[in-house]
Amino acid sequence: MVTSNPPLFVAYFVSMKEVRTRFAPSPTGYLHVGGIRTALFAWLVARQTNGKFILRFEDTDKKREVEGAREHLIASLKALGLEYDEGPDIGGPFAPYVQSERTESYRKWAQKLIDAGRAYADTRSPEELDTIREDAKSKKKAFLARDYRPENTPEWKSGVPLRFKSEPKAYEWHDEVMGDLHTGPEVVDDFILIKSDGLPTYNFAHIIDDLEMEISCIIRGQEFIASQPNYLNLYEALEIERPKIATVPHILGPDGKKKLSKRDGAKDVLDYLRDGFLPDALVNFIASLGWNDGTEQEIFSRQELIEKFSLERVGRSGATFDERRLLWINGHYIRELPLEELYEKVADFWPVEAKDATDEYKKQVLSLVQERLKFFKELPELTTFFFTDLPVNPGLWQEHKQLKKLEQSELKTLLEESKASLEQSDFSVEDLTNRLNELLEKTGQKPAVLFSIIRIATTQAPASPGLADTLAVLGKEVSLKRIDQMLSALT
User: Fold this and answer.
1) Is 262 considered catalytic here?
2) Structurally, how many domains does the chain consist of?
3) How far apart are CA 120 and CA 191, in angstroms?
4) Whose CA is closest to 392, among 298, 488, 270?
5) With contact defined as beta carbons under 8 Å apart, do 411 and 397 qualify?
Protein backbone atom coordinates (compact mmCIF):
# COMPACT_ATOMS: atom_id res chain seq x y z
CA MET A 1 0.00 0.00 0.00
CA VAL A 2 1.39 3.40 -0.99
CA THR A 3 0.67 6.06 1.59
CA SER A 4 -0.66 9.46 0.63
CA ASN A 5 2.51 11.11 1.88
CA PRO A 6 5.30 8.55 1.40
CA PRO A 7 8.78 9.17 2.85
CA LEU A 8 11.23 10.89 0.52
CA PHE A 9 13.14 7.68 -0.13
CA VAL A 10 9.94 5.82 -1.03
CA ALA A 11 8.66 8.71 -3.13
CA TYR A 12 11.84 8.53 -5.21
CA PHE A 13 11.26 4.91 -6.08
CA VAL A 14 7.55 5.34 -6.67
CA SER A 15 8.37 7.95 -9.27
CA MET A 16 11.20 6.00 -10.90
CA LYS A 17 10.53 2.24 -11.01
CA GLU A 18 9.15 -0.73 -9.13
CA VAL A 19 10.72 -1.13 -5.71
CA ARG A 20 12.41 -4.50 -5.33
CA THR A 21 14.09 -5.34 -2.03
CA ARG A 22 15.64 -8.59 -0.89
CA PHE A 23 16.62 -10.60 2.14
CA ALA A 24 19.63 -12.75 1.33
CA PRO A 25 20.73 -14.82 4.33
CA SER A 26 23.37 -17.54 4.38
CA PRO A 27 21.90 -20.89 5.52
CA THR A 28 24.42 -21.22 8.33
CA GLY A 29 22.09 -21.48 11.33
CA TYR A 30 18.99 -20.07 12.91
CA LEU A 31 17.67 -16.56 12.47
CA HIS A 32 17.79 -14.13 15.40
CA VAL A 33 16.44 -10.60 15.72
CA GLY A 34 19.37 -8.98 13.90
CA GLY A 35 18.66 -10.89 10.70
CA ILE A 36 14.92 -10.58 11.09
CA ARG A 37 15.18 -6.80 11.44
CA THR A 38 17.02 -6.57 8.11
CA ALA A 39 14.31 -8.69 6.49
CA LEU A 40 11.55 -6.67 8.15
CA PHE A 41 12.90 -3.32 7.00
CA ALA A 42 13.20 -4.63 3.44
CA TRP A 43 9.68 -6.06 3.63
CA LEU A 44 8.22 -2.78 4.90
CA VAL A 45 9.87 -0.74 2.13
CA ALA A 46 8.50 -3.13 -0.50
CA ARG A 47 5.00 -3.32 0.96
CA GLN A 48 4.48 0.43 1.33
CA THR A 49 5.15 0.90 -2.39
CA ASN A 50 3.38 -2.18 -3.78
CA GLY A 51 6.85 -3.42 -4.65
CA LYS A 52 8.37 -6.88 -4.43
CA PHE A 53 10.20 -8.54 -1.53
CA ILE A 54 12.57 -11.33 -2.55
CA LEU A 55 14.18 -14.15 -0.56
CA ARG A 56 17.52 -15.42 -1.83
CA PHE A 57 19.95 -17.91 -0.29
CA GLU A 58 23.62 -16.99 -0.40
CA ASP A 59 25.07 -20.46 0.03
CA THR A 60 28.51 -20.27 -1.55
CA ASP A 61 30.32 -21.04 1.71
CA LYS A 62 29.52 -24.74 1.78
CA LYS A 63 31.76 -25.44 4.78
CA ARG A 64 29.55 -23.28 7.03
CA GLU A 65 26.17 -24.40 5.75
CA VAL A 66 23.99 -26.07 8.37
CA GLU A 67 21.58 -28.84 7.46
CA GLY A 68 17.99 -27.70 7.79
CA ALA A 69 18.91 -24.01 7.94
CA ARG A 70 17.13 -23.20 4.67
CA GLU A 71 13.85 -24.65 5.89
CA HIS A 72 14.33 -22.87 9.22
CA LEU A 73 14.86 -19.48 7.55
CA ILE A 74 11.74 -19.92 5.43
CA ALA A 75 9.71 -21.01 8.47
CA SER A 76 10.92 -17.99 10.47
CA LEU A 77 9.85 -15.47 7.83
CA LYS A 78 6.47 -17.12 7.31
CA ALA A 79 5.81 -17.45 11.04
CA LEU A 80 6.26 -13.69 11.42
CA GLY A 81 4.05 -12.98 8.43
CA LEU A 82 6.91 -11.63 6.29
CA GLU A 83 5.68 -13.27 3.11
CA TYR A 84 7.99 -12.89 0.11
CA ASP A 85 6.96 -12.54 -3.53
CA GLU A 86 9.81 -14.54 -5.06
CA GLY A 87 12.08 -17.11 -3.49
CA PRO A 88 13.73 -20.54 -3.57
CA ASP A 89 10.56 -22.45 -2.67
CA ILE A 90 8.05 -20.48 -4.75
CA GLY A 91 10.11 -19.46 -7.78
CA GLY A 92 9.80 -16.24 -9.71
CA PRO A 93 10.90 -14.56 -12.95
CA PHE A 94 14.57 -14.51 -11.92
CA ALA A 95 14.91 -18.07 -10.61
CA PRO A 96 16.90 -19.79 -9.30
CA TYR A 97 17.10 -17.91 -6.00
CA VAL A 98 20.02 -19.94 -4.65
CA GLN A 99 23.56 -18.79 -5.45
CA SER A 100 25.05 -22.26 -5.84
CA GLU A 101 22.55 -22.84 -8.67
CA ARG A 102 23.58 -19.69 -10.55
CA THR A 103 27.25 -20.49 -11.29
CA GLU A 104 26.94 -20.08 -15.07
CA SER A 105 25.82 -16.50 -14.60
CA TYR A 106 28.83 -15.70 -12.42
CA ARG A 107 31.22 -17.26 -14.93
CA LYS A 108 29.72 -15.12 -17.69
CA TRP A 109 30.29 -11.90 -15.74
CA ALA A 110 33.72 -13.09 -14.61
CA GLN A 111 34.71 -13.55 -18.24
CA LYS A 112 33.63 -9.98 -18.96
CA LEU A 113 36.05 -8.78 -16.27
CA ILE A 114 38.84 -10.97 -17.66
CA ASP A 115 38.29 -9.62 -21.17
CA ALA A 116 38.44 -6.07 -19.82
CA GLY A 117 41.70 -6.77 -17.99
CA ARG A 118 40.01 -6.41 -14.60
CA ALA A 119 40.49 -9.95 -13.24
CA TYR A 120 43.32 -12.44 -13.10
CA ALA A 121 43.95 -16.05 -12.17
CA ASP A 122 45.72 -16.31 -8.83
CA THR A 123 47.71 -19.55 -8.81
CA ARG A 124 49.57 -18.83 -5.59
CA SER A 125 49.28 -21.41 -2.84
CA PRO A 126 47.98 -20.59 0.66
CA GLU A 127 51.58 -20.83 1.88
CA GLU A 128 52.76 -18.26 -0.67
CA LEU A 129 49.96 -15.91 0.33
CA ASP A 130 50.94 -16.33 4.01
CA THR A 131 54.49 -15.38 3.08
CA ILE A 132 53.49 -12.11 1.45
CA ARG A 133 51.19 -11.32 4.39
CA GLU A 134 54.14 -11.74 6.69
CA ASP A 135 56.16 -9.46 4.40
CA ALA A 136 53.54 -6.73 4.76
CA LYS A 137 53.53 -7.24 8.50
CA SER A 138 57.31 -6.96 8.71
CA LYS A 139 57.10 -3.65 6.85
CA LYS A 140 54.45 -2.51 9.35
CA LYS A 141 51.82 -1.86 6.71
CA ALA A 142 48.40 -3.27 6.02
CA PHE A 143 48.32 -6.23 3.67
CA LEU A 144 46.85 -5.30 0.30
CA ALA A 145 46.69 -7.99 -2.35
CA ARG A 146 47.08 -5.36 -5.06
CA ASP A 147 50.59 -4.61 -3.81
CA TYR A 148 51.60 -8.21 -4.55
CA ARG A 149 49.99 -8.92 -7.91
CA PRO A 150 51.68 -11.87 -9.61
CA GLU A 151 53.33 -11.29 -12.98
CA ASN A 152 52.51 -13.21 -16.15
CA THR A 153 49.32 -14.76 -14.78
CA PRO A 154 48.07 -17.79 -16.73
CA GLU A 155 44.71 -18.09 -18.43
CA TRP A 156 42.02 -18.64 -15.84
CA LYS A 157 40.57 -22.12 -15.66
CA SER A 158 38.43 -24.18 -13.34
CA GLY A 159 40.06 -25.00 -10.00
CA VAL A 160 42.04 -21.75 -9.87
CA PRO A 161 40.83 -18.73 -7.88
CA LEU A 162 39.93 -15.65 -9.89
CA ARG A 163 40.89 -12.34 -8.31
CA PHE A 164 39.50 -8.89 -9.11
CA LYS A 165 42.03 -6.35 -10.37
CA SER A 166 41.06 -3.16 -8.62
CA GLU A 167 41.67 0.42 -9.70
CA PRO A 168 42.05 2.24 -6.36
CA LYS A 169 40.40 5.62 -6.05
CA ALA A 170 38.61 7.75 -3.48
CA TYR A 171 34.85 7.35 -3.21
CA GLU A 172 31.92 9.38 -2.01
CA TRP A 173 28.48 7.82 -1.84
CA HIS A 174 25.13 8.34 -0.20
CA ASP A 175 23.68 5.80 2.21
CA GLU A 176 19.94 6.04 2.87
CA VAL A 177 20.54 5.56 6.60
CA MET A 178 24.12 6.62 7.28
CA GLY A 179 24.09 9.68 5.04
CA ASP A 180 27.02 10.85 2.91
CA LEU A 181 30.11 8.65 3.30
CA HIS A 182 33.57 8.77 1.79
CA THR A 183 36.84 6.82 1.78
CA GLY A 184 40.30 7.16 0.31
CA PRO A 185 41.87 4.84 -2.29
CA GLU A 186 43.85 2.94 0.35
CA VAL A 187 40.87 0.74 1.24
CA VAL A 188 40.24 -0.53 -2.31
CA ASP A 189 41.90 -3.88 -2.94
CA ASP A 190 42.03 -6.96 -5.14
CA PHE A 191 39.66 -9.58 -3.77
CA ILE A 192 38.66 -13.09 -4.78
CA LEU A 193 35.74 -13.30 -7.20
CA ILE A 194 35.54 -17.04 -7.72
CA LYS A 195 37.10 -19.59 -5.40
CA SER A 196 39.05 -22.71 -6.33
CA ASP A 197 35.88 -24.79 -5.81
CA GLY A 198 34.20 -22.89 -8.63
CA LEU A 199 31.79 -21.04 -6.37
CA PRO A 200 31.75 -17.24 -6.22
CA THR A 201 32.48 -15.23 -3.11
CA TYR A 202 29.72 -13.18 -1.53
CA ASN A 203 31.55 -10.00 -2.64
CA PHE A 204 31.05 -10.96 -6.28
CA ALA A 205 27.86 -13.03 -6.29
CA HIS A 206 25.55 -10.61 -4.50
CA ILE A 207 26.36 -7.84 -6.96
CA ILE A 208 25.53 -10.04 -9.94
CA ASP A 209 22.38 -11.39 -8.27
CA ASP A 210 21.12 -7.93 -7.36
CA LEU A 211 21.69 -6.78 -10.93
CA GLU A 212 19.97 -9.72 -12.57
CA MET A 213 17.09 -9.75 -10.09
CA GLU A 214 16.61 -5.99 -10.59
CA ILE A 215 17.00 -5.17 -6.89
CA SER A 216 16.43 -1.45 -6.46
CA CYS A 217 17.46 -1.11 -2.81
CA ILE A 218 19.89 -3.13 -0.70
CA ILE A 219 19.25 -3.05 3.04
CA ARG A 220 21.98 -4.72 5.07
CA GLY A 221 24.02 -4.60 8.25
CA GLN A 222 26.71 -2.21 9.33
CA GLU A 223 29.47 -4.80 8.90
CA PHE A 224 29.34 -4.29 5.12
CA ILE A 225 30.27 -0.59 5.14
CA ALA A 226 34.01 -1.37 5.12
CA SER A 227 33.58 -3.38 1.91
CA GLN A 228 31.48 -0.81 0.08
CA PRO A 229 34.44 0.91 -1.69
CA ASN A 230 35.42 -2.46 -3.16
CA TYR A 231 31.84 -2.99 -4.31
CA LEU A 232 31.78 0.46 -5.91
CA ASN A 233 35.01 -0.36 -7.74
CA LEU A 234 33.47 -3.59 -9.00
CA TYR A 235 30.25 -1.86 -10.13
CA GLU A 236 32.40 0.46 -12.25
CA ALA A 237 34.46 -2.39 -13.68
CA LEU A 238 31.27 -4.22 -14.67
CA GLU A 239 29.80 -0.97 -16.04
CA ILE A 240 26.55 -1.43 -14.16
CA GLU A 241 24.43 0.91 -12.06
CA ARG A 242 24.34 0.15 -8.36
CA PRO A 243 21.10 -0.01 -6.37
CA LYS A 244 20.31 2.34 -3.53
CA ILE A 245 22.19 1.34 -0.37
CA ALA A 246 20.78 1.44 3.18
CA THR A 247 23.06 0.32 6.00
CA VAL A 248 21.41 -0.34 9.35
CA PRO A 249 23.46 -0.20 12.56
CA HIS A 250 23.99 -3.20 14.81
CA ILE A 251 21.53 -4.35 17.42
CA LEU A 252 23.49 -4.29 20.66
CA GLY A 253 23.30 -6.79 23.49
CA PRO A 254 21.53 -5.93 26.75
CA ASP A 255 24.69 -4.22 28.07
CA GLY A 256 24.59 -1.83 25.10
CA LYS A 257 28.28 -2.38 24.40
CA LYS A 258 28.67 -5.01 21.71
CA LYS A 259 26.72 -6.46 18.82
CA LEU A 260 24.01 -8.94 19.71
CA SER A 261 25.12 -12.30 18.33
CA LYS A 262 24.39 -15.99 18.44
CA ARG A 263 27.59 -16.53 20.40
CA ASP A 264 26.30 -14.16 23.07
CA GLY A 265 23.04 -16.06 23.45
CA ALA A 266 20.82 -14.27 20.93
CA LYS A 267 17.73 -16.47 20.69
CA ASP A 268 16.34 -18.15 17.63
CA VAL A 269 13.33 -16.10 16.59
CA LEU A 270 11.26 -19.30 16.41
CA ASP A 271 12.11 -19.92 20.07
CA TYR A 272 10.31 -16.70 20.95
CA LEU A 273 7.27 -17.96 19.08
CA ARG A 274 7.53 -21.35 20.77
CA ASP A 275 7.61 -19.57 24.13
CA GLY A 276 4.36 -17.82 23.30
CA PHE A 277 5.35 -14.45 21.89
CA LEU A 278 2.86 -13.19 19.32
CA PRO A 279 4.14 -12.57 15.76
CA ASP A 280 2.65 -9.06 15.64
CA ALA A 281 4.29 -8.18 18.96
CA LEU A 282 7.68 -9.41 17.74
CA VAL A 283 7.33 -7.47 14.50
CA ASN A 284 6.35 -4.33 16.46
CA PHE A 285 9.31 -4.74 18.81
CA ILE A 286 11.89 -5.53 16.12
CA ALA A 287 10.75 -2.66 13.90
CA SER A 288 11.33 -0.22 16.76
CA LEU A 289 14.93 -1.37 17.30
CA GLY A 290 16.61 1.67 15.83
CA TRP A 291 13.53 3.20 14.19
CA ASN A 292 10.76 5.49 15.40
CA ASP A 293 8.22 7.67 13.65
CA GLY A 294 9.16 10.81 15.57
CA THR A 295 6.35 10.45 18.11
CA GLU A 296 5.94 8.80 21.51
CA GLN A 297 3.90 5.97 20.00
CA GLU A 298 5.22 2.50 20.89
CA ILE A 299 2.48 0.14 19.76
CA PHE A 300 2.03 -0.09 15.99
CA SER A 301 -0.26 -2.36 14.04
CA ARG A 302 1.32 -4.05 11.05
CA GLN A 303 -0.54 -1.70 8.72
CA GLU A 304 0.67 1.33 10.69
CA LEU A 305 4.25 0.10 10.33
CA ILE A 306 3.80 -0.25 6.59
CA GLU A 307 2.40 3.26 6.34
CA LYS A 308 4.82 5.02 8.71
CA PHE A 309 8.16 3.26 8.29
CA SER A 310 10.95 5.16 6.57
CA LEU A 311 14.68 4.57 6.26
CA GLU A 312 15.23 8.27 6.93
CA ARG A 313 14.12 7.71 10.53
CA VAL A 314 16.39 4.74 11.22
CA GLY A 315 19.06 5.85 13.69
CA ARG A 316 22.75 5.73 12.88
CA SER A 317 23.83 4.30 16.23
CA GLY A 318 23.20 0.83 17.60
CA ALA A 319 19.87 -0.06 19.24
CA THR A 320 20.03 -1.93 22.55
CA PHE A 321 18.06 -5.16 22.77
CA ASP A 322 15.81 -4.82 25.82
CA GLU A 323 13.89 -8.02 26.53
CA ARG A 324 11.85 -6.30 29.25
CA ARG A 325 10.42 -3.99 26.62
CA LEU A 326 9.63 -6.99 24.42
CA LEU A 327 7.77 -8.55 27.36
CA TRP A 328 5.82 -5.33 27.86
CA ILE A 329 4.86 -5.10 24.18
CA ASN A 330 3.88 -8.76 24.03
CA GLY A 331 1.83 -8.38 27.21
CA HIS A 332 -0.01 -5.48 25.60
CA TYR A 333 -0.90 -7.58 22.57
CA ILE A 334 -2.06 -10.43 24.82
CA ARG A 335 -4.34 -8.09 26.78
CA GLU A 336 -5.89 -6.87 23.53
CA LEU A 337 -6.90 -10.35 22.39
CA PRO A 338 -10.52 -11.46 22.81
CA LEU A 339 -10.70 -14.23 25.39
CA GLU A 340 -11.87 -16.86 22.91
CA GLU A 341 -8.98 -16.12 20.56
CA LEU A 342 -6.47 -16.12 23.42
CA TYR A 343 -7.86 -19.44 24.66
CA GLU A 344 -7.18 -21.01 21.27
CA LYS A 345 -3.63 -19.66 21.18
CA VAL A 346 -2.66 -20.96 24.64
CA ALA A 347 -4.04 -24.47 24.02
CA ASP A 348 -0.59 -26.09 24.23
CA PHE A 349 0.68 -24.08 27.20
CA TRP A 350 -1.56 -25.16 30.09
CA PRO A 351 0.07 -26.99 33.04
CA VAL A 352 -0.32 -30.78 32.96
CA GLU A 353 -2.53 -30.48 36.03
CA ALA A 354 -5.16 -28.78 33.85
CA LYS A 355 -5.67 -31.75 31.54
CA ASP A 356 -8.98 -32.81 33.11
CA ALA A 357 -10.35 -29.29 33.67
CA THR A 358 -13.31 -28.13 31.62
CA ASP A 359 -13.01 -25.50 28.92
CA GLU A 360 -15.32 -23.26 30.91
CA TYR A 361 -13.15 -23.44 34.03
CA LYS A 362 -9.93 -22.84 32.07
CA LYS A 363 -11.48 -19.81 30.41
CA GLN A 364 -12.36 -18.43 33.85
CA VAL A 365 -8.76 -18.91 34.93
CA LEU A 366 -7.42 -17.39 31.71
CA SER A 367 -9.62 -14.31 32.07
CA LEU A 368 -8.03 -13.72 35.50
CA VAL A 369 -4.39 -14.04 34.40
CA GLN A 370 -4.71 -12.37 30.97
CA GLU A 371 -3.82 -9.00 32.47
CA ARG A 372 -0.56 -10.35 33.91
CA LEU A 373 0.44 -12.81 31.19
CA LYS A 374 3.54 -11.61 29.33
CA PHE A 375 4.11 -14.70 27.18
CA PHE A 376 2.27 -18.00 26.97
CA LYS A 377 5.01 -20.22 28.38
CA GLU A 378 4.59 -18.64 31.82
CA LEU A 379 0.96 -19.80 31.95
CA PRO A 380 1.76 -22.82 34.18
CA GLU A 381 3.59 -20.61 36.68
CA LEU A 382 0.58 -18.33 36.93
CA THR A 383 -2.17 -20.94 36.95
CA THR A 384 -1.05 -24.32 38.37
CA PHE A 385 -2.58 -23.57 41.78
CA PHE A 386 -6.01 -23.29 40.13
CA PHE A 387 -5.83 -26.97 39.17
CA THR A 388 -4.08 -28.69 42.08
CA ASP A 389 -3.27 -28.23 45.78
CA LEU A 390 0.35 -27.13 46.05
CA PRO A 391 2.30 -28.15 49.18
CA VAL A 392 2.45 -25.58 51.96
CA ASN A 393 5.53 -23.44 51.42
CA PRO A 394 6.62 -21.75 54.70
CA GLY A 395 9.12 -19.64 52.77
CA LEU A 396 6.31 -17.61 51.25
CA TRP A 397 5.44 -15.99 54.59
CA GLN A 398 8.91 -16.22 56.11
CA GLU A 399 10.36 -14.18 53.23
CA HIS A 400 7.39 -11.82 52.85
CA LYS A 401 8.39 -8.26 53.71
CA GLN A 402 5.34 -7.69 55.95
CA LEU A 403 4.42 -11.18 57.16
CA LYS A 404 7.88 -12.10 58.42
CA LYS A 405 7.44 -9.42 61.13
CA LEU A 406 4.44 -11.26 62.64
CA GLU A 407 4.57 -14.09 65.13
CA GLN A 408 3.22 -17.40 63.91
CA SER A 409 0.39 -17.13 66.43
CA GLU A 410 -0.62 -13.78 64.92
CA LEU A 411 -0.70 -15.26 61.45
CA LYS A 412 -2.84 -18.11 62.70
CA THR A 413 -5.31 -15.78 64.45
CA LEU A 414 -5.73 -13.62 61.34
CA LEU A 415 -6.21 -16.66 59.18
CA GLU A 416 -8.80 -18.13 61.57
CA GLU A 417 -10.79 -14.88 61.50
CA SER A 418 -10.59 -14.86 57.72
CA LYS A 419 -11.83 -18.44 57.52
CA ALA A 420 -14.76 -17.71 59.81
CA SER A 421 -15.87 -14.85 57.58
CA LEU A 422 -15.35 -16.74 54.33
CA GLU A 423 -17.39 -19.67 55.60
CA GLN A 424 -20.42 -17.36 55.55
CA SER A 425 -19.79 -16.17 51.98
CA ASP A 426 -21.64 -17.30 48.85
CA PHE A 427 -18.26 -16.88 47.04
CA SER A 428 -19.49 -14.43 44.47
CA VAL A 429 -16.89 -11.77 43.64
CA GLU A 430 -19.16 -9.06 45.06
CA ASP A 431 -19.74 -10.84 48.37
CA LEU A 432 -16.08 -11.82 48.73
CA THR A 433 -15.01 -8.21 48.09
CA ASN A 434 -17.34 -6.94 50.80
CA ARG A 435 -16.21 -9.56 53.32
CA LEU A 436 -12.52 -8.89 52.65
CA ASN A 437 -13.07 -5.17 53.21
CA GLU A 438 -14.97 -5.90 56.43
CA LEU A 439 -12.07 -8.07 57.59
CA LEU A 440 -9.68 -5.17 57.03
CA GLU A 441 -11.79 -2.98 59.33
CA LYS A 442 -12.27 -5.69 61.93
CA THR A 443 -8.59 -6.70 62.16
CA GLY A 444 -7.13 -3.24 61.62
CA GLN A 445 -4.62 -4.76 59.20
CA LYS A 446 -3.34 -3.41 55.91
CA PRO A 447 -4.28 -5.22 52.68
CA ALA A 448 -0.59 -6.08 52.19
CA VAL A 449 -0.75 -8.15 55.39
CA LEU A 450 -4.24 -9.62 55.55
CA PHE A 451 -4.75 -10.27 51.85
CA SER A 452 -1.26 -11.76 51.54
CA ILE A 453 -2.03 -14.25 54.34
CA ILE A 454 -5.22 -15.39 52.61
CA ARG A 455 -3.59 -15.42 49.19
CA ILE A 456 -0.65 -17.55 50.33
CA ALA A 457 -2.94 -19.93 52.18
CA THR A 458 -5.20 -20.48 49.18
CA THR A 459 -2.66 -20.42 46.32
CA GLN A 460 0.80 -21.19 47.76
CA ALA A 461 2.07 -18.78 45.11
CA PRO A 462 4.09 -15.59 45.48
CA ALA A 463 1.55 -13.66 43.40
CA SER A 464 -1.95 -14.09 42.01
CA PRO A 465 -4.73 -12.12 40.32
CA GLY A 466 -7.17 -10.08 42.43
CA LEU A 467 -7.91 -11.97 45.64
CA ALA A 468 -11.72 -11.90 45.43
CA ASP A 469 -11.62 -13.03 41.79
CA THR A 470 -9.14 -15.80 42.60
CA LEU A 471 -11.21 -17.11 45.52
CA ALA A 472 -14.37 -17.03 43.42
CA VAL A 473 -12.80 -19.18 40.71
CA LEU A 474 -11.21 -21.59 43.21
CA GLY A 475 -14.58 -21.98 44.88
CA LYS A 476 -15.62 -22.26 48.51
CA GLU A 477 -14.71 -25.91 49.11
CA VAL A 478 -11.16 -25.66 47.73
CA SER A 479 -10.45 -22.29 49.33
CA LEU A 480 -11.52 -23.38 52.84
CA LYS A 481 -9.71 -26.71 52.55
CA ARG A 482 -6.45 -24.92 51.67
CA ILE A 483 -6.90 -22.49 54.57
CA ASP A 484 -7.23 -25.51 56.89
CA GLN A 485 -4.00 -26.95 55.46
CA MET A 486 -2.24 -23.67 56.18
CA LEU A 487 -3.61 -23.54 59.70
CA SER A 488 -2.29 -27.04 60.33
CA ALA A 489 1.13 -25.98 59.11
CA LEU A 490 1.12 -22.92 61.35
CA THR A 491 0.15 -25.09 64.33
Assistant:
1) yes
2) 2
3) 10
4) 488
5) yes
Flag whether 66 is in a domain. yes
Last residue of some domain: 202, 232, 252? 252
- Give strand pairing partners of 291: 314
Last residue of a domain, which of 233, 252, 271? 252
Q: Tell me, what CATH number does 432's domain have?
A: 1.10.10.350
- Residue 328 inside a domain? The answer is no
Residue 84 counted as domain residue: yes
Q: Where residue 178 sits, what CATH number does that domain have?
A: 3.40.50.620
pLDDT in 10s for each residue of the chain, 491 residues: 333 344 544 444 444 579 999 999 999 988 889 899 999 999 999 999 999 999 999 999 989 999 999 999 999 999 999 999 999 999 999 999 999 999 999 999 999 999 999 999 999 999 999 999 998 899 888 899 999 999 889 999 989 999 999 999 999 999 999 999 999 999 999 999 999 999 999 999 999 999 999 999 999 999 999 999 999 999 999 999 999 999 999 999 888 888 887 766 678 999 999 999 999 999 999 999 999 999 999 999 999 999 999 999 999 999 999 999 999 999 999 999 999 999 999 999 999 999 999 999 999 999 999 999 999 999 999 999 999 999 999 999 999 999 999 999 999 999 999 999 999 999 999 999 999 999 999 999 999 999 999 999 999 998 889 999 999 999 999 999 999 999 999 87
Among candidate residues 262, 363, 412, 481, the one labeled active-site is: 262
Q: Which residues neighbour 221 within 8 Å (Cβ) at sequence distance 6 or greater?
A: 34, 38, 247, 248, 250
Residues 6+ apart with CB under 8 A from 98: 56, 57, 59, 88
Q: Where are the alpha helices (DSSP H) in 48-176?
A: 69-79, 103-115, 126-138
Cα 466 to the center of its chain, rounded Å: 33
Q: Where are the alpha helices (DSSP H) in 370-465?
A: 379-383, 395-398, 408-422, 429-443, 447-459
Euclidean distance between CA atoms 195 and 231, whole angstroms: 17
Range of the domain at 64: 8-252
